[in-house]
Amino acid sequence: MNISNALPLARWFGHRHSRTSPLQLLLRNRLAAAGLIVLIAVCILALITPWLPLHHPNQTALGNRLLPPGSDGHLLGTDHLGRDILARILWGTRVSLSVGISATLVAATVGSILGILAGYFGRHVDNILMRGIDMVMAFPYILLALAIVAVLGPGLLNALYAIAIVNIPFFARNVRGVTVTLRNREFVDAALLSGKGHARILLTEILPNVLPVIVITMSTTVGWMILETAGLSFLGLGAQPPQADLGSMLGEGRRLISTAPHVATIPGLMIFLLVMSINLLGDGVRDALDPRLKAGALRRPAARTRTAPAARQQPTGEPKGLLEVDNLRTEFHLDGQVHQAVNGPTFHIEPGECLGIIGESGSGKSVTAMSLLGLVASPPGIIQNGQVNYQRQNLLGVSDPVLRGYRGGELAYIFQDPLSTLHPLFTVGDQLVEALRAHRPLSYRAAWQEAVRRLEEVRMPNAARRAKSYPHQLSGGMRQRVSIAMALANDPQLIIADEPTTALDVTVQAQILKLLNRLREQKQASLMFITHDFGVVKQICHRVAVMYAGEIVEIGPVEEILARPAHPYTRRLIGCVPSVDYEGGRLAEIPGLPPQVSNLPVGCKFADRCDQVTDQCRAAPIELDTLNERHQARCIFAREVSA
Ligand SMILES: Nc1ncnc2c1ncn2[C@@H]1O[C@H](COP(=O)(O)OP(=O)(O)OP(=O)(O)O)[C@@H](O)[C@H]1O
C-alpha cells in the first residue's frame, strides 16, 4: 500500500473532497458486504445471548444425551452430556469472538508500538527490536503457541496471551516497513525542523499514516486468531470444561463424529461462518482503504489493450500516409461507468512529418497515443472501435508477436517521465543493450558499443562513462536523452513522444526539442509529438491536431492554424501561450472545466465554455468541417471565422 495515498481513518465515513467514501466502496464489494452482514448477525446474536430464552449452556441432562437437531426443546440437539447445543454454540461464539478480538487488539497494540519505534528511530533500536521479532518468527508459530500455553498452563486467558504473542511479529514487521518509508518523507523532516519532539511527531505525523495499515492487518488476521484460539481449545489447551468455546466443542464432538455428527458439525460450521465472514470483510476493508487495488492496480494488466472485434477489421484500401488512425474509440470501464476517453479521432502522419497533438490535461492525448500500440492498461481500458493502419495492416487486429515486433522497433514511444520508465536497478547502458537485442541478433559486446554510439548520437556528454550510470545518477535532461536513445535504438519509422519535455526546465527543453527535430530529419522518421504547449508545436511540428474531450476539434498545418484558428478552443489555447507570435490581445485563461468523460454532452463538447454558443451547438453532434484540403474544424462557425 502506498502510504502517500493512505487514508486516515477519519475519511472512512466520507470526506468532502472524495467522491466515494471507503464505507461506500466497502459496501459495493458484494462479498465484503455479505461478510459484514453475516458478521453483524453473529455479533448481535452473541451480544444478546444472555437475554435469550436458552437452556444453561453447562446444564447436563444425561437422559437427553445426543438428541438430534430439531428435537423438542433443543433446536440444534444435545451433546454427549445432554447439554443444549444451541445454548453452547451461542455462548461459545461469544467466548471465541472475545478471545480472538482481544488477542488481535493485544497483538496489534504491542506489535505496532514495536514497529513504529523500530522504524522511526532505526539503528540500535531497530536492530534490537527486530532481532527479537526475528527470534519469535524463527519458531513455527503454532508450536510456539503450544509451548507458551504449556509453560503458562492451559486456560483461555493463557491461550489468548499465546495467540497474541505469536502474532505480534506480523504487526511489528508491517508497521516498521511503512514507518521506515514515512520517516524519510519530507513532511516528517519539516515537522522536525518546526521544533516538534519525537513523541509528537510519532503521534501526529506517523501514527495517522500508519493506522490504515494497522487496521488492514487487523482485519486480515482476526479471523486467523479466532481459528488459532479454536485450535488450542480443540487440543484441550484453551477453554477448560465445562466452559464452551467453538474449538473445545469441536474437540468434544470429534469423538462422536460417526455416531452423532451434529455435535462436531455445528461448531465446525460456526467457525467456518465466522472466519469466512471476517476474512471476506477484511479483504473488503483492505481494498476500500486502498481503492487502487479495486481499480486493478495489483492485477497484472494484459500484454496489450483489450480490443473489441469491431476494432480488429483489416483495412480494405490503401492506408493514407505512414500511419493512419481512423475513428479510434477507447473507453475505460470503471465501477459500472463507461469513461469515453477517446472519441473517434481520425488523422494520418506522413513519412518524415511531425504531427503535434495538443490539448488540455485529460483531453485524451496520451490514451490516443497509447492505443496505437495497445499500451492502454486492460482492465479497465478497451478499444471499442477504429483502425490504426500501418503497412497495410490494422495494428489493433494484428497478432501479439507482430505487435511486439513493431513496439520498440519500427514504432517507438518516448514517455513523459523517464525516471518512472527507466529501470532503477540497471545501468542505462544495459537498458539500451536490452532494447537493441530485443530486435537484433547482437552479441552483448557489440550491443554495448552500439548503445554508447546511440548515447553519443543524442549528445550525451561522456557517453562511454554515462552508459555505466544508473538512472538516478543522471539529470532529468540526461535521462530524457537516454529515453530518446532507446526509442531511436532500432531506427524507428515513427516516434511517438508523449510530452517528453514537460518535466524539464526551459533550456533543457529547447535542447531536447532541437535534438528530436534533428534526429527526425536525419533519419527521415515521422514524429507524433504530444504537448499542451503551442509554443512547442510552433517550434517543431508541421501539422497539429487539437484535442478536446477525446475528439479532434481542429487539425491542419501549424502556420495556418496559428494564423487563423477556426475553433474557439484552439483560439483559447493559443491565447494562453505568451511566447507564440499571436497578436490576439491579452492572455486569458479558459474559463470552466472540460466535461466529464463519463457523461459527455450530445452536441459540441466545448459548448459550456464557449462564448459563441448557440442552441444549435448543443442540439446534435458537430461534425468536422473541411475548410480547405488540409484544414478541418469541428465548429458551426468555423467557415465564418477562418474566411
Ligand atoms: N487508467 C485509466 N483509468 C481510467 N481513466 C483513465 C485512465 N487513464 C486515463 N484515463 C482518463 O482518460 C481521459 C484522457 O486521459 P489522457 O491521459 O489521455 O489525457 P491527456 O490529454 O494525455 O492528459 P495529460 O496531458 O495530463 O497527460 C482522462 O479523463 C483520464 O481521466
Automatic annotation (TrEMBL):
Gene Ontology biological-process entries: peptide transport; transmembrane transport
Biased composition range(s): Low complexity: 304-316
Predominant localisation class: membrane
Lineage: Bacteria, Pseudomonadati, Pseudomonadota, Gammaproteobacteria, Oceanospirillales
Domain ABC transporter: residue ranges: 323-574
GO cellular component: plasma membrane
GO MF annotation list: ATP binding; ATP hydrolysis activity
UniProt KW Transport keyword: yes
Sequence intervals crossing the membrane: 31-52, 99-121, 133-153, 206-227, 263-282
Membrane topology: Peripheral membrane protein; Multi-pass membrane protein
Protein name: Dipeptide/oligopeptide/nickel ABC transporter permease/ATP-binding protein
Compartments (UniProt record): Cell inner membrane; Cell membrane
Species annotation: Natronospirillum operosum
ABC transmembrane type-1 domain segment(s): 93-282
SMART domains assigned to the protein according to its UniProt record, in alphabetical order: AAA
Pfam families listed in its UniProt record: ABC_tran (PF00005), BPD_transp_1 (PF00528), oligo_HPY (PF08352), OppC_N (PF12911)
Keywords, alphabetical: ATP-binding, Cell inner membrane, Cell membrane, Membrane, Nucleotide-binding, Translocase, Transmembrane, Transmembrane helix, Transport
Disordered, as annotated region: 300-321
UniProt keyword Methyltransferase, yes or no: no
Residues annotated as signal peptide: none
